[in-house]
Amino acid sequence: AAVSACEKALMWSQALQLLHEMAHDHVDRDTISYNAAISACEKGDEWCQAFQLLSDMARDHVYRDTVTYNAAARACEAGGEWTLAVHLLQEMIHDGIDPNAITYFTVMRACKHGGEWRQALQLVREMAHHNFYIDLTTYSSAISVVHKGGVCESGVLQLLDEMDAFALGFVDMEIRAAGPHPGQS
């Protein structure tokens, strides 16, 4: 609870100090306390500290969950470390922890800040592959990344083609859900 209070008060260094004292006093540091400390580091623009805490969790055999990785990815995004954000997503999947839409959007935003539009497009494809609901907000985010990358024509055309396929799939799904029309068998 004390580490969470530090997170909410934007006191990342105090959150780290509490974790250190917990270890010194042989108090178990659990996923929740680490997650709060990682979030505090993210809010304090201390991506390196957040990444270190993630490593400490692995070393100390503390379970890392989706919240853990999302907080660390947000810290990487805030620090402009898009390659680390992508690495965290890959590590997460490798470790059998399911990313959620927040994970993908966070990594996409990190790619946007890094001007990595091709990587952002790949993330949209991965979301589709993992059966995430991809809506116009997702494509809008991806178009924003492509635009920021200065690749207007080819990247946007590629996205529009994918959006067209998405829309056709959505319409087809809606028609099937509605069932046969009166008079049809």
Shape: elongated
Q: Secondary-structure element order, as H and E?
A: HHHHHHHHHH
The low-confidence runs, each spanning 5 or more residues with pLDDT under 50, are 167-176
User: CA-to-CA gap between the ends?
Assistant: 61 Å
Strand content: under 5%
Output the keywords.
185 residues; mainly alpha; 10 helices; 0% strand
Concise description?
The chain is 74% helix and 0% strand. The chain is mainly alpha-helical.
Descriptive report:
By secondary structure, the protein is mostly helical. It has helices at residues 2-8, 12-24, 31-43, 47-59, 66-78, 82-94, 101-113, 117-129, 136-148, 153-178. Helix 6 packs antiparallel against helix 7. The model is unreliable at 167-176 (pLDDT under 50).
Topology:
Layout: H1 2-8, H2 12-24, H3 31-43, H4 47-59, H5 66-78, H6 82-94, H7 101-113, H8 117-129, H9 136-148, H10 153-178
